[in-house]
Amino acid sequence: MTTMTQPPGQDQAARLRQMVAASTVEPKPESRVELKPTKAPQPSAGPAPTVRPSAPVVAIASGKGGVGKTNLAVALAIGLARCGRRTALIDADLGVANADVLCGVRTTAHLGQVIAGERTIMDIAEPVNGGFLLVPGGSGIASLADLDDPQRARLFDALAQLDAKCDAMVVDCGAGVSRSVRRLVHAADLALIVTTPEPTAIADAYSLIKCVATEAIEAGQPPHGRIAIVVNQVNDPGEAQRVFARIAGVCEKFLKFRPAFAGAVCYDRVVPQAVRARKPFFHIDPKSGATRDALALAAYVHKGLPNQSASRLSFFKRLAARFTRSK
């Protein structure tokens, strides 16, 4: 892998890339870390308030754009559906949403209409060839952080209606470390941080993990077991292991926790072909290397996700609480 060296006097991002590149220890092969399903708390004495069961949520995020995050979100939704889960993919990359394009869905419906109170969530949810529901994000919409309280409450209440219809929800977050992305990642049951072997992608992935982990620790919720790394567009398994080892090593040194290794997806020419065809790459070549790896990733997530639990607050209530506390 190319080492990440920068001339002195660069900005903080350059220094971070140098720090990430500094690990020279040859890693041992890293097997996927087992995710243990979340257990519901033991009932306490006396009656407890009834909480409606909620679907577990996987947030897919990346420190930078161009790493194949949305392609993997679509592939994961298809894979979870094949595992028998009723799955919804929520395109939360508001403003530049494009999951509908990758799914070949032509629609004018989007979350902005739900935010405005013009449509219900089930009005805009689209059944997709792949066995899941797609909730289009729409372009030119303000980010979650820019919505006012009534708009955000309307959005969260609407999305919460999907709970009763799903066994899993995949949330495609925006790229970067914005407040909206951090809140989505923190509220999810599992956060998949996508990177590629490129030095900038590695450094930016660590930046996102650092922001999320720091906020989780400050909130009294250690991030261990909730953050996992996916290395996309790799040439071979060894390259994925080296990328993960660099990120995990820096996390252990500076954040005092080690993220999980969710797996890797190989570089495959079928992916850009699928983008041009406006189809998920599963449908272009079901036997491709990318399809094989994405199915393995879906199996990993399916095994580790908790089942619906009547004792957990829904993702959207947790998310609303995060925005309220951040004021």
Helix and strand topology:
Elements: H1 12-21, E1 57-62, H2 69-82, E2 87-91, H3 99-102, H4 111-115, H5 121-124, E3 126-128, E4 132-135, H6 149-160, E5 168-175, H7 179-187, E6 190-195, H8 199-218, E7 227-234, H9 237-254, E8 260-266, H10 270-277, H11 281-284, H12 289-304, H13 315-325
Parallel strand pairs: 1-5, 1-6, 2-4, 2-5, 6-7, 7-8
Antiparallel strand pairs: 3-4
Helix pairs in contact: 1-8, 2-12, 6-13, 7-8, 7-13, 8-9
What does this structure look like?
With 327 residues, the chain is of the alpha/beta class. It has one domain: 3-Layer(aba) Sandwich (Rossmann fold), CATH 3.40.50.300. The protein has 13 helices and eight strands. It has helices spanning 12-21, 69-82, 99-102, 111-115, 121-124, 149-160, 179-187, 199-218, 237-254, 270-277, 281-284, 289-304, 315-325, and strands at residues 57-62, 87-91, 126-128, 132-135, 168-175, 190-195, 227-234, 260-266. An eight-stranded mixed sheet has the order 3-4-2-5-1-6-7-8, with helices on both faces. Helix 6 (149-160) packs antiparallel against helix 13 (315-325) and helix 7 (179-187) packs across helix 13. The longest helix has 20 residues, at 199-218. The protein is globular, with a radius of gyration of 19 Å. The termini are far apart. The model is unreliable at 1-13 and 35-51 (pLDDT under 50).
Structure characteristics:
327 residues, Rossmann fold
